[in-house]
Amino acid sequence: MRSAEPEGAHPRTLEEEAVGRAASVILAVLRADDRTCAQLGALLIESGRVAGDGHELADSHYDEVVGGALGRFFLLLGGLLPALLTQAIEEDAEHLAAIRAFFLDPRDHYSLEELAALWRMQVDDVRNIYHDELLRQDEPGVCVPDRSHWNGPRALEAEPTKADFGQVAWIDAIGASVVLNLIRAFDIERALGADFSHVRPEAWRTVPFLIHIPQFIADALAADACIPPGLAVHLRIEQFLIELFTSDSTPGRNFSGAPYR
Q1: Residues 6+ away with beta carbon under 8 Å from 109
Q2: Which candidate, 244, 247, 258, places its Cα nearest to that of 142?
Q3: What are phi and psi of 110, to 5 degrees?
């Protein structure tokens, strides 16, 4: 039987319910494992939060301090686990390989279907994005990536043409990808590994943060027409923040194909 949803909440999908059950089981196992408490107690001692004398604990408030820390730990972990599990069960090796090839070993042209898979959106959305990007390329201040510095066999080939028979030139696809932030920064980082600096400066490497936002903000992000539908809320927040802070002056915004030093 499905549990009752809070008033105003969006109905959960079957996958979300399965993830929720798995998260509950994992939390229960960790709570019941004495090693969790022992390791947290050792951490509190090493960090100076409670006093310890060898194996004998001298802090009379040890149980209270450890109990409070455990409570906070499981509260935070309970909020994180569903998102972590959702990402953990996603098979993305093929997608990461496609991202790596797109940046480091590109072909001359890509089909709309290939770009839809790469950008994780519908083909019609790719067609609209590409059409708009072509219209903008002649506008002042819009940077079109320079391929002259590309260190590959296609670097010195003739200038790419506009889309023909549903094919998009790599020079245009990479421009739209970077200018419009169509590929998740974290996925680019994972896909490229040690070669990341050949595509973007170190300032573009990602760092994890734990944040809490009100439900109405999550709902607003879910309804934002500028963000691809079906995108998880945490990915929507990433996209929103990148769009908020990126500009023509952002490091690595104008991709040239040249390695950054």
Answers
A1: 160, 167, 168, 169, 170
A2: 247
A3: -130, 140
**pLDDT tens-digit series, residues 2-46:** 445 545 555 668 888 999 999 999 999 998 998 988 898 889 888
> How many whole angstroms from its chain centre is CA 256?
23
Q: Residue 258: phi, psi to the nearest 5?
A: -85, 140
- Per DSSP, the residues of 123-146 read HHHHHHHHHHHHHHTTSTTPPPPP
- Is-above-0.70 flag for pTM? no
Is the Cα torsion angle 232, 233, 238, 240 positive or negative in sign? positive
**Amino acid identity at 240:** F
- Residue 78 contacts by C-beta under 8 Å, 6 or more apart in sequence? 23, 27
Write out pLDDT tens, residues 64-109. Answer: 888 888 999 999 999 889 888 988 888 889 999 999 999 999 999 9
What DSSP element (H or E) covers 169?
Answer: strand 167-169
168 forms beta bridges with: 110
